Amino acid sequence: MPDFPTPSHRLHRRWRRLRDRLAAGTIRAGGLGVIVAVLAIGVFLAVEVVPLFAPARVTTEASRDLEGTGAAVGLVPTAAGDVLVIDRDGGYRRIAPGADAIDAARIPAERLDGRSVTGLSAGPDALVLALSGGEVLRVPRRAEARPDGPGTRRYTLFAGETIAALASAGDGERWWLAGRDAAGRVAVLRGDGEAVERFVLPDAASALALDPDGRLVLGDGHELAVWSLAAGEPRRLGRLPVLPDDRRITALSYLSGGETLLVGDSRGGVHRWLDRHDDAEPLLAAPDYAVSGDSTAVTRLVPVPGRRLAVALHADGGLALYQALNGRVWQGAPAAAESPLALAVSADGRRLWWLAADGLKTLTLAAGHAEVSWRTLWTPVLYEGHMQPRQRWQANVSSPESEAHFGLAPLAWGTLKAAFWALVFAVPLALAAAVHTAAYMGPALRARVRPALELMESLPGVVIGFVAGLVLAPWVDRHLAGSLLLLVVLPVGTLVAGMLQARLPAVARRCLPLAAAGLWLVPWLALLAWLSFSVSPLIEGWLFAGDLPGWLKDRWGLDYASRNALIVGLAMGFAVIPTIYALAEDALSDVPRSLDEGAQALGATRWQALTRVWLPAAGPGIFSAVMIGAGRAVGETMIVLMATGNTAIFGVSPFEGLRSIAANLAIELPEAAVGGSHYRVLFLSALVLFVFTFCVNTLAELVRQRLRRRWRRLGAVG
Amino acid sequence: MKRWRTSGEGGWPWLAAGGVAVSLLMVVALLMLIAGRGLAHFWPASLERVTLADGAVIAGEPVRHVTTRDGRDEWLYRTGNRDLDGRTWRWLEAGDIVSRTRPGDLLELQRERWGPFIGRLVAVREADTTVIDATAGSARRWQALETRLARARALRETIETRRRETIAPLARQLAAGTASAEQRAAFERARDALTGLREALARDSLVLESVDGRRLEQPLATVLDAWRPNAMGTLDKLGLWGRRVWAFLSEGPRSANGSDGVWPAIFGTVLLVLLMSLLVTPFGVLAAVYLHEVARQGPVTRAVRIAVRNLAGVPSIVYGVFGLGVFVYGIGGTLDRWFFSEALPSPTFGTGGLLWAALTLALLTLPVVIVATEEGLARIPDHQREGALALGATHYETLTRVVLPMAMPAMLTGVILAVARAAGEVAPLMLVGVAKLAPQLPVDGEFPYLHLDGKFMHLGYHIYNLGFQSADAEQALPLVYATALLLVAVIVVLNLTAIFLRHHLRQRHRALRH
Asked: Over 70: is that where the pLDDT of A19 sits?
């Protein structure tokens, strides 16, 4: 269009310029936005993971003046998140956190019978009040935890003595109650329905703790005495020194679940002991925490409900948080000048109440992910119910009574094991195929075979996984000998075919050339495979008494699981062969022809030129092909999910199952509670997967690009 | 041996050739296995009447012959009749089998409940009176069954159409409270008519007898299909095979982990992939155009390019994790708090759904589209751009009139490759919203027609679910094969299209360069 400076043309030109600028802006913004969004994946995963490693903290939330707290004897947290302050005279006040809603009531006088309250123990099944004169008032727990609810009974624990400490446990029908007086004598009540028995134990105690199965632990000096109160007369299971001679036991507490016993000593150390469920040796020492400090004595240990976590109070009023596996995760200065009258943790484990003479302090416990640390994720840890430190992954726990095991090592191991066996299968096959295609095959055949093998790549993992898990695994299970025989028969059969071909008359040889061997070997190998499956029962019967898996177990101690690492390796190998093949073949064909021709002109055979010239030249490219294949094998989800039993086993045997990070994510993430430790650990595993594959791929890509530049300098690649 | 060494180059080249052969063998074996088993499932196999050594008689279809490791020969029979026997499968030792015959009057019924029935037809009853009894010949009984079955089928179809086209819209209006008195009356009438049709459907029943002589009465309304495989010719069988394949493709699954019908899964897969390509194409092309045409080429661009390329190698499950964290819990949770707070705590968008799945897959395939489009852009000779600019076109005009049209096949290839990859991905979907059973399609006649928050079924997940979560794995296996075949077919077709397009594109550019 001729361009005249008429007004309309000027307008049009301005419009065009505007449009151009607008488009450039849009493309720039949109393109950058998309790229940033895609790259944000890693950042987002990291953001979700960071809170996992945030240090635990206890902070003062509020401090409320209360009148007459000097007369208070204890705190009872309720399921609703409130706390009851119980006074000596039987009066109690309900206090909601952060609010002023206070209602007050009093235990009926006839229940107390003129006695005063001297102490209490708030267990999960019952609230027990110690009354003056050695009496106790046991209140079965209801939702609102009122200290005068229905079913309240009064019992005598010590006739006339004052109860200095109480512990209680039980499971509804059966319950136990243990107390000591100021002189250290111990008396026990055992209830079974309506029947209640009282025992006095011959041991003295400075601290005591009860687990939900009726096991009583008494601390006396530097020794622990363990009693079984489960049935019949109380039995002492053992007495063992748990501390060096210069320390004394000053506090004892079972953590939630009743399997882990924390022992606080007179010099500020806290030690972990595990129930062994073995009457001869009742307790198992866990390795000492890294910080088992040298400060003032631990005077109180308060377990956090539903967590393997406890608050330790020191004699100087200092607080510390202990996690069963990780030891001390936080330590802080005293929250108030004087040591508290009572200390209690709310039912949800988020709040700590500190009752002092001048009021009630509320502290926030921020230790949401204290179970998880770099050490518990990757190194063996002594879990409850085990004798040795183990690497375990068992994140789905049915109840707070059982401990979650967050060990990522078995999953990482499973991932690498699956990838390793996949590469063991895929690399030789893919590289052999690439070498043959690049060096021996004619261009016409190559143009057919390459797409056929590339099509293999697009077979969805779920299809391969289903065939591997539901068809191949049972088949190999029944024909293990034949399948292993195949590993020998196929290469030998190929060589035999080559030898036979060389003996054929020239005409026949021309019909079956090496260049087309990739095709005409297919029926030959299929025949051999069929033969080896037919004769394998004979061989199995002759060598292994007809039962190879049984032989493996007897001879080598290998358990044969039908969905095992080898099946995964085979299936995933099948999935990565095309990736490795295509990239390696590219690398080989990119090598300048002149190198090959030069070598052959100097008298090298095809194979010699290939091994001495081509392969070294294409080496980095082949390396990057293998790396990319490894990246794909590491992240493949459905095949591993379907072709293994998904058992997180930490073993080397190729006949065991495994569980990979990717499969674990697919199984567990939809059920994990948002923001919980489990959720974040799963995100961490996804981040590990992301970083690993990203690094592997980047390395491979850099190698490939350098190689390409080198060939471009040689003027080979167009 | 010597001749081998001198004439050729020893054994190594042969081993290399073996690599190709083994790979090809595996592909062919896998495809044949899936295709064979998947298609054979619908073939009406012959039924056998088996007499055992202890005098018991059973009827069923021989499915598999297995030699166990301790040398026993065993046959697996599909015997059906779960309501009579409490099981559908029988393992029989070959040694126990005395005789096997194929009587022509053995029939198989497909029923709404209790799975298939295998046995004989004794009588046909109509409204509690026996119309055709055992004295009539087996051929006449069969004929009666066929005509009545055709009638029942027609009635069922009428009921379905009525319900869908007349009753459902009226019911919606009634529920919304916007119906006029006239419509109310129409609804009553339609409902009465439907009741009449149902009664007509319930008229007939069959008296059946298993081969060991136990009888049961089966209402014809609950019989979906019937055939006598032993009396059928090949053509008849082919017809039935076609009908069953069609039913498999066009019907929904009848029970949670049960049999038949993948239509909702096909629909879900296609819809998901469509939505995904709608999302991925503009963004992928935009990013590629930015990277190749707008951004200044330098180390940063190169690094970004490598990073984008590598993202294609990041495991798909990681994208699923990202989708769950960002789309479902992040954006979805926020949307719920803002717009759907009245429905909380039951989530609307804060749970896996179609939209989030499509977005996740779009993200997953974005690198594929970017890389393919960039390759296409790089293939366009610079003189084309320079020519356009020299003629006075702005950059925008060069882009839209010259560069993008020329890069179109490359973009198309990229999108098709993306679609092929997305269609086969299952792992991320398990996190962001695929459902085991969602017979309700996410598209219907109700506003807003396309339910982006709805759960959907997917062929790939259907395979996993059928094969690994169903109660009767033996029964599910053939369906898994058939579903797998369908999925593979879809993906292979998409890939072949991409390969063809790429080939076409290369030809064209070869022509351009000269």
From this structure: yes
Q: Look up the CATH number of the domain holding residue A174.
A: 2.130.10.10
pLDDT at B192: 87
Answer whether residue B489 is part of any domain. yes
- Helices A517-543 and A443-457 pack at an angle, to 10 degrees, of 50
Neighbours of A545 (CB within 10 A): 11
Q: Which pLDDT score is estimated for A2? A: 56
Nearest CA distance, B175 vs chain A (angstrom): 35
Q: With 60 as the cut, is the pLDDT of residue A713 above it? A: yes
- Which residue is closest to A687 within chain B, CA to CA? B318
State pTM to two decimals: 0.88
pLDDT confidence band for B256 (50 / 70 / 90): very low
Contact between chains at B320 and A665 (C-beta distance less than 8 A): yes
A15 inside domain: no
Across the interface, whether the CB atoms of A38 and B427 are under 8 A apart is answered no
Non-local CB neighbours of A402 within 8 Å, separated by 6+ positions: A257, A384
CATH code of B315's domain? 1.10.3720.10
pLDDT (0 to 100) of residue A580: 92
Domain identity same for A232 and A130: yes
Number of domains observed in the structure of chain B: 3
Q: Hey, are the CB atoms on A48 and B325 less than 8 Å from each other? A: yes
For residues A324-353, give the mean pLDDT: 82
Report pLDDT digits (tens) over B101-147: 888 888 888 887 778 888 888 888 887 777 777 777 778 888 888 88
Q: Which is nearest to B473 in space by CA: A564, A659, A642?
A: A642
Closest chain A CA to residue B1 = A499
The more confident residue out of B512 and B250 is B250
Judgement on whether residues A325 and A457 belong to the same structural domain of the protein: no
Q: Measure the CA angle with vertex B325, ends B321 and B331; round to 5°.
A: 140
Domain that holds residue B336: 263-513
Query: Which positions in chain B touch A4 (Cβ < 8 Å)?
Result: none
Instruction: Compute the distance between CA of residue A315 and CA of residue A336 in angstroms, rounded to an integer.
Output: 12
Taking CB atoms and an 8 Å limit, are B427 and A606 in contact across chains? no
Report the candidate in B244, B278, B509, B294 with the shortest Cα–Cα distance to residue B396.
B294
CATH number for position A581? 1.10.3720.10
Asked if A430 is an interface residue toward chain B (Cβ–Cβ < 8 A), one would say yes
Domain assignment present for B17 = no
